[in-house]
Amino acid sequence: MKQLRNNVIRAGLEVLYFSGAHHLLRPIFAGVGAIFMLHHVRPGRDAAFQPNRHLEVTPEFLRAALKSAQGSAAPIELVVEDAEFFQTYSIPYHEGEKIPHLELVSGQPDLLTKLLQPLTK
User: Fold this and answer.
1) Residue 82 above 70 pLDDT?
2) Residue 9 belongs to domain spanning
3) Where does residue 49 fall: left (phi above 0), alpha (psi -120 to 50 degrees), or beta otherwise?
């Protein structure tokens, strides 16, 4: 059943694309937002067998998407699959890529350094 649904959705999107009908819908839907459905963000691979390649994106693609959202008022749309159901989440994020880093909070113990110390006998 799930495979049938995915095939119907894929066929519908391909009909829109190959018939050129997506150009007719552009004035209505252009600039509405970006939709991502992905399972992994990892560097591209050249392996012959990649059954879930359509659900993976490269870090470069994700960076470009975040950069694109930075200049837009439209939210980033995520499509998340949970067993048989899909849920769409709108994320109004427009701040571009951020690199997380740890900062020591003054007055708090440095637990990370303690955790990374080698064990002594």
Assistant:
1) no
2) 1-30
3) beta
